[in-house]
Amino acid sequence: MTKNLLEIQALRKRYGSVEVLKGVDCTMQQGEVISIIGSSGSGKTTMLRCINMLEDFQGGRILIDGEPIGYEERNGVRVRKSEKEIARQRALTGMAFQQFNLFPHMTAASNVMLGLIKVKKMARDEARSVAEKWLERVGLGQRADHYPGQLSGGQQQRVAIARAIAMNPRLMLFDEVTSALDPELVGEVLQVIKDLAADGMSMLLVTHEMRFAFEVSSRVIFMNQGVIGEEGDPKVMFLKPQTERLAEFLKTSSFA
Amino acid sequence: MNEFLAFLDQVWLARFVILRGLGLTVSISLLAIALGSVLGVLVGLALTYGNRPLRFVVRAYTDFIRGTPVLVLVLASFYILSTIGIELNAFQAGVFALAVFCSSHVGEIVRGALQAIPPGQTEAAKAIGLTFSQTFTSVLWPQALRQMLPTWVNTAAEMVKASTLLSVIGVAELLLRTQEIISRNFMSLEFYFLAGLLYFAINYAIERFGKYVERKVSVPS
Ligand SMILES: Nc1ncnc2c1ncn2[C@@H]1O[C@H](COP(=O)(O)OP(=O)(O)O)[C@@H](O)[C@H]1O
Ligand SMILES: [Mg+2]
């Protein structure tokens, strides 16, 4: 049996008194591409954000390569790890956001280089060549010295993906990375993700692009009201949904 | 025409007095802006990132200072500080008052600029593994600086104007010097006009400098 890359056990997350994740269990092997689908508000974003500790969570465990993320047991008490340790663990995953979140005062190359220099302690020249390599990979080799404000949405999102991937994460998290894009720019971003999948990158992606999820995923997770409603092979999930909920969700979605 | 020549004559006579006043005004302003900005950045950081008790104390400080007329601050630091054993001469007391005044405004500017940065910036920085201090120095502060530059320049110009209040406690800055000159030659209209022109020149220079820096650091889009 291969060791799990990601293991989520009974994950619970509350915002104030509202429980948003109500016990999520999930395991993932290296090289898997898992799409998370589900209606808005079902907890997809929250789940991704817990995995890289952008959100604290109150119950359960998340392990990457067997290493517990964010919290540890000390004398039987659950304590949050130090900020420094959490920062290190965050670099185990890469994340791309719906709103790109590029640093607007830095060129595309500098955006990619920042983590390499500050976190990976790479020399500037080396970081520059790594950044150029990844910008090349996402089709933006010619745009390395452009600022985000000089790039289209699709280009910005590709820079953001390059910025995350360049850190050489164990796992990539994509949160609806095409939702903020004009329709004609969606394709170029999805193509980049497809290429990464083909390279064997492990990824967890929240998406509303059902056709894309169907084509690219090795497994699909359907989130429903804070729990996993159904999961399995994309062919089964999309063509023969086992639950009423999923069948209903698919009817209202763009998958045709 | 004769009157204008007479004015120029008086200006020539008083040239060193005027220049000394101008020099003092510039020194007071620069010192107050520099000290006030350093203190103000600390105030802004405390307001943005401080824990609850610290925020409360600093908030009280800025609200109190901003609600007090600058003249009162100047008089208070000249007459009251000495009663609690802090002996400052008029120049020091005046600069202190202006710096305190400046810090409360800069503090607000810094807080506003930092809070205006979308949370996604911090999240993206966290997501690539940056610590808070790395995020602050590489991502947040450079953006905040650009954002607050224009308002900060305005505050600097306000400080120059506020420096005139130091004349009340006998600091021989440009306004007090002007009044001295007028008391000798009675050309009040002309010399007040000249003083006004000089203040305008200082603030014009500050504004041009601000615009220059703004252009220098502006991000292409
Ligand atoms: N910062 C927050 N504070 C309070 N409630 C939140 C916050 N973020 C998300 N929620 C709530 O948590 C639930 C799940 O949100 P989210 O994970 O964003 O759903 P999804 O990504 O599936 O649309 C929603 O009901 C949402 O309103
Ligand atoms: Mg979401």
UniProtKB/TrEMBL annotation, chain A:
Q: What is the lineage of its organism?
A: Bacteria, Pseudomonadati, Pseudomonadota, Alphaproteobacteria, Hyphomicrobiales
- Residue span(s) of domain ABC transporter: 6-250
Name of the molecule in the record: Amino acid ABC transporter ATP-binding protein
Database matches in SMART domains? AAA
UniProt family annotation: Belongs to the ABC transporter superfamily.
Print the keywords alphabetically.
Answer: Amino-acid transport, ATP-binding, Cell membrane, Membrane, Nucleotide-binding, Transport
Query: A Gene Ontology molecular-function term?
Result: ATP binding
Its record classes its membrane topology as: Peripheral membrane protein
Species of origin reads Nitratireductor rhodophyticola
- Compartments where found: Cell membrane
